[in-house]
Amino acid sequence: MSRVWLVGRLAIRDLRHNLPHALLLLVAITVAMATLTLGLILHGVTARPYWQTRVATNGPDVVASSVGFAGPAGISAAALGRFDALAHAPGVTAHSGPYPVAWPVLRFGRVTADVMAEGRSPARAAVDQPDVVQGSWVRPGGVVVEREFADALGVHVGDRISLAGRRFRVVGIAVTAAVPVYSQVCFYGGCSGPPGARPSFDTGLVWLTEAVARSLGTAANPVTYYLNLRLAYPASAPAFVRAHQPPPGTGPLALTAWRSLRDAAATVVVQEQQVLLPASWLLGLLAMASVAVLAGGRMAAGDRRVGLLKAVGGTPALAAAVLLAEYLVIALGAAAAGLLTGRLVAPLLASPGASLVGGPGAVHLGGLTVLLVTAAAIAIAGVSTVVPAVRAARISAVAALAEVVRPPGRQDWLIRLSARLPVALLLGMRLATRRLRRPLLSCVSFAITGSAIVAVLIFHASVRGHAGQSGPEGPGDAQVSQLLLMLTVVFVLLAAVNVLAITWATVLDTRRFSAIVRSLGATRRQTTAGLTAAQLLPAFAGLLLAIPAGKQLYAAVQNGGPQASPSGWWLLVMVTGTLLAVAGLTAIPARIGARQPIAAVLTEA
Amino acid sequence: MQQEVILALLAKEPSYGYQLRARLRDALGPLGDAMNDGQVYVTLARLEKAGQVAVERSAGMPDRPDRKMYALTAAGQQRVAEWLTEVSWPKPDLAEFHLKLLAAGAAQLADPVTIVDAQRRELLRRLRDAQRAALAEPPESGAALLLEGVVLRLQADLRWLEACERTWTGRNASQRRNK
Amino acid sequence: MSQTMNQSMLRAGGLRKEYGREASLVRAVDGVDLDVLAGETVAVMGPSGCGKSTLLHLLGGLDRATAGQIWLAGQWIDQMSERRLAALRRDAVGFVFQAFHLMDELTAVENVELPALLAGRSPRAARRRATELLDQVGLGDRARHLPSELSGGQRQRVAIARALANAPLIVLADEPTGNLDSEATLDVLRLFESLHEAGQTLVIVTHDARIAATADRLISMRDGAFIDETRLTGGTSGQLSALVNLDG
Q1: Which of A93, A247, A118 has its CA nearest to residue A178?
Q2: Which distant-in-sequence residues (6+ apart) come within 8 Å of B169 by Cβ?
Q3: Which of A389, A405, C118, C228 could make an SS bond with C220 (beta carbons 3.0 to 4.6 A apart)?
Q4: Which domain does A255 fall in, by range?
Q5: Burial of A403 (0-12, 13-18, 19+ CB in 10 A)
Q6: Do chains A and B have 3 or more beta-carbon pairs under 8 angstroms?
Q7: Is A54 a residue whose pLDDT tops 80?
Q8: Closest partner residue to C118 among A416, A522, A597, by Cβ?
């Protein structure tokens, strides 16, 4: 037991001794873990608002729609008969409808939108009576607008709108659980629309009187019908749908179970999850690169500590244990911080919008999430410290104390080649190749960050690709865009941290080299330029790799499907901007390192 | 010149005076250049009087010591055997110099530090000369080895003189403070 | 390389180097005046901590003096910009360190050619000069060895060859035999003697009397200041008999 205590004390003392390094690691891993936590938490988070709305509105278990199956003359008698049969099928305890639904174009001010206009009676329905949150229910000349749609349009009670050219007044705002939330209204293909128009995700929901709804139908854009059903056993809804669903394409109606309605609400959140989980993987990799750089950079100092430990009687296992304990502390700290951050940020991303009443409620941090995040943090820290720990176990005390630092690698051809280059490049090449691990890690981290940015650029290009609608932007897209922006900023910041860390590690490792070379007559400018060149080359290589990698990433996240090409102009900006930033960031530690007088560095060696 | 050295040189076989002289100069290399030739004969005469060496024959002229052939007597052989096993190292002059400094300081005749500096200068010059000579000799010659020894001892003596200087400078400073 | 004798190569006046402030002020070099003529070898001796290494760093432009002036090869260098100092280090000064400070990953010849490459000479010319210098110091057959494969004395000789790469006007050596055994010390000694004979100006800082004995002038230093100066050439040379007690 005392051994564990000793290990713990040594580890903590060591961390305090190297606080900036430990903090850097902590930040990097925390960011990755927060993203992972968010991704895991958002799973199934919109269930509660759906349930609240359903209870408030007496929502249906199954809905049936005749979209796509009605002729220009309106619904056929056979279809009406089918609706009727369904309404009285075994297991059905209540029903409302079938209600006529028109598909006019709405105009409000300068905004136009496609609309699903459901015809209702002023009387209360048995199933699905939308909950009016403002104003009152439908009356002649009046229209009730779904809440999220109203927010998007900027419409309030009392405003005047026009539907298919006819003017109406907004008399109320309401919510329902019978139709998928705004921006997902057409999720299950239950939309029709003006001839020639593509069904768009921006179709909104309004209610008006049945007579008006029927009158809004045209030959080209006929009225469809909608039926709400209540079952004795809601859990049997999928079975009910299977039993009564006509074979696909035959019609005359299509059934949807309530679970699908609930999941539609989650679509936005599912999209976010789709973005967050891969992002957290990438951030995890980036954090691993940071850890590897920082851990490797301290290998020499670590070796000496290990040597001291061994010289005073510690076993190889003890030395390795101390090292691992340090990183375990950081990993656990990062996991805790990440879980906390994720838990705090989740409500912002978890809201399904205003379409459903009630917030997502207390976001639940499940035991599984905690376990997964902790395991991931430990894995990241562990993988990057395995090498130094194994070394610690194997290296002899004498060798460690003598600071027999691994001699830098020697590449004959590189040395011969660099002799032909101008001084700055000569120095740069020799500096970069002293430890090949560093330029490799730099290349990898740029490839990771670059591919994330390329994927985001492709996403934006795709969104713009099917933009050009004059409708209001769906909240889903905006939220996802915001999330992507936030993630991009995080990636760029982490990459910048990585660059600084790698450069600083290089500067420290090459202090003696730089001092000797300066004593032989190289200027500070030449050594700084050399260090910058040593960083720019792997950065450029990483960015070149990032372009195809980013395309692959996007394809993987979207599960195939169409991809727009990222704008060439933006790619150029990304590459040049990154290289300039790298040059600038490298110059800072390089100049600080070169400020030390030569004699000071050489006499301490 | 230590008498025992001459005795030892005769141990192998009897030699003429001039042969002994030649062997000595060979062994000492450049250091033997300025050797006083007459010293050898004076020592031989002394040894003869002491009974450790005897003249075997002389080639003609009895007054020319270099033509005399000298040989070890029994007493001489015994003395050589003893001498080879003796371990007394030649006494360095440290005590004399140390007393010189104390006397100068006590009687206020001169500043001990100045004396030390002067001695250091002299030893440094000697060191330089010996080193030069050592470098000029072919590497495996006996004289090179001897010179190397001279250099190393001078180096050691110089270190001691540095210590003397430090101590006496400190003593001067504390004396000034106490005044 | 012939240098006009009796011409000053290096002059320093009122040199001072201080660290810390007020109560903890340390005067590493406290008012040093020095004049080194062309072709001269000057040795600076003193106990450890007396500031002799610091002095050498100031003279070689590796550190900046707190006060005082340094005149080297026709220029005042104490106020020079870092860039011009670097050029000076490249072309006019050769530095030899106690710890050798060779690049571990470069072979001997690659180490020696480095200053020439930094000066902008073609790789071929630099390589040629490096090989010449290694022959000069007696390591021609070890040109392709890494420092880890060389002994201490050999490493220091490579360092000396590197210091000579750009034919410097003055070579500054900081405890060149500090890390060497006596055999290696002899090798370095011989090298310094031959450099001296060739007319190279040398300033050597050492606490080894043997190295100091190769100098024309020996300066003693303590607590940052010069306290004594001895001229070693001339004097009692030739009287070798004084070295052994052949009488009595």
Answers
A1: A118
A2: B113
A3: C228
A4: 60-264
A5: exposed
A6: no
A7: yes
A8: A522
